């Protein structure tokens, strides 16, 4: 076995692992019960999957221009995915688009100085409001 064959095997393993993680993220988006769980599935394995795909591609392309572009794509993904997930989570929380019974700790309700609403109340408000239940004007 020469170096090229080893690099091909490593690149293939990275590409396959990245594809499987991205597939797991897609399955999680379809299977998880609420917004916060789906947001987790959309960000955590998807980012790692993309980074593995970029690493496998960088191993195969091996030119400075291509690797620089792939590194920039990876950096931008690492910077934007957590910010986007945070904003989606906060918006969904304020709109009541999650299940409180699935939360172990509700730090945002504690930080805002109001008690956490029972899960039945959240579901009732979400089902009765036409566009969700936005009870907080902030």
TrEMBL record:
One of its GO terms (molecular function) is sodium:proton antiporter activity. Residues 114-138 are annotated as: Disordered. It holds the Pfam family PhaG_MnhG_YufB. Signal peptide: none annotated. It comes from the Bacteria. Keywords: Membrane, Transmembrane, Transmembrane helix. The keyword Transmembrane helix applies. The chain crosses the membrane at residues 6-30, 42-61, 67-89. InterPro entries: PhaG_MnhG_YufB (IPR005133). The keyword Membrane applies. Belongs to the CPA3 antiporters (TC 2.A.63) subunit G family. This is Multisubunit sodium/proton antiporter MrpG subunit.
